[in-house]
Task: structure prediction
Amino acid sequence: DQLSLRSKLLLGLGQGVEGIWITIGGFYLNKFFLESCCIEPVFVAIIQLCVGLFDAFNDTLIGALSDKTRTRFGRRRPWLLFGGPFMAVAYVCVWNRLPLETPQEMKMLYYLGSYMAVSLGLTSIAVQIGALVPELTSDYNERTIAAGFRVIGGNIFGVVFAVLHTGLVGPEAEPESFMLSAVICASCIWIFSWTVFCGIQERPVVEEVPVSTGIVTEISLALRNKAFCYVCLMYVAGPTAVTLMQSNIALFCKYILEDEAILILILPIVQGTALLMIPVWVVVGQKTSKRHVYMIGGCLLTLAMSCLNFIESTSAAVVAAAVIGVALAVPYLVPVSMLPDVVEADEEMTGRRREGVLAGLFTTSLKLSATAANVLTNFTLEQAGYMAPPSRCEAAGPAALAAPVSVIDVQPVTVRQALRWLVGPIPAALVVLATFAAWRFPITPEVHAKRRSGRFGAPESITP
Result:
């Protein structure tokens, strides 16, 4: 039940779509809303909250619809065919900076609609990539390797396009630069989706006796699966910690380290180290178990994130970035590799293959992590007294813009202290919670082997 190298590479390419959005959106979108679009933090928080609620509905719905899709292209591939161009257009719209004089409410409505469209397009692609893995292979180690290819693909394309975005936009953050970056990234999102559509082949669907169940029943059945609940908790708490750090690191560099340009060095160090460590974590997972990988990586990540609260210099920040990068992939790699095992446990419990529903709920978990992180960030900054930078958000003339302004005086002490907590202690506490969930995850290699031999028989008899 081995996956071909071509299939693994295509899964990694498909994951690159999510990697581009998660990395660029994670590091830059919140700062783009606050300091380029000059939207007040409370309105940014409302945008993030509404998108999160929208995700809770659309991910599960698209997963359920893809399970019931029947076309000559298969169940999953048609969603890639139409999701690619849809997300590409939405991606360009969300990075379009409206004129500064646009009312705050109008900005909020525009970016809310654009952000929802990106989320819908991303779901149409990401859910299918996640649902394809358990359909293509039932081997425990092959799924771990496939997860490694997916996370490596997401990280590679995330790093490459985030560095490209940073280089194109620069400290000046001109609207034309944002649009150029958006068009390049959107074109690649479209190309990646269609490449996976053309290159990967689904297995024939074994028709089941139709079962009439509503979406609420589908969710209820999933939540009865203890393994699924634990893996979703891991996929909420761990990525929320990472997203909190990502969303605030640009502001941290600007207002704490007083060196906004250092981000172009920190970003490739974090992501590059994470990329290099993925094969190491895959090997550790094969030698021990997925649970042990998370417990080791979670402890290391907790320690490194806790130290961010005390960092004052750029050199210390670079060292911390490298240490964080060592374990950064773990909160993504391990849950992704556990999902196919959970799908089998769900089939044993319900008697039906429901990859789409479970992958949809799983993708919802990841998006909820981003929502929780960004809502917490913006409400915290609002309460701390965040002030929009005058050089970008006020209609000042050339003389005013040329006047010397101390960057450390732009934000009050309360905001700087809030930024420290948002990149350090709070993410560390969330990683501890995710590590606990990994410790409690019930599907070990031994349990998986017993399930296959007892429930399914020989590996070659397994049908998707």
Observations:
- The chain has 18 helices and no strands.
- Confidence is low (pLDDT under 50) at residues 396-409, 456-464.
- Residues 5-200+220-388+406-461 form a domain with the Growth Hormone; Chain: A; fold (CATH 1.20.1250.20).
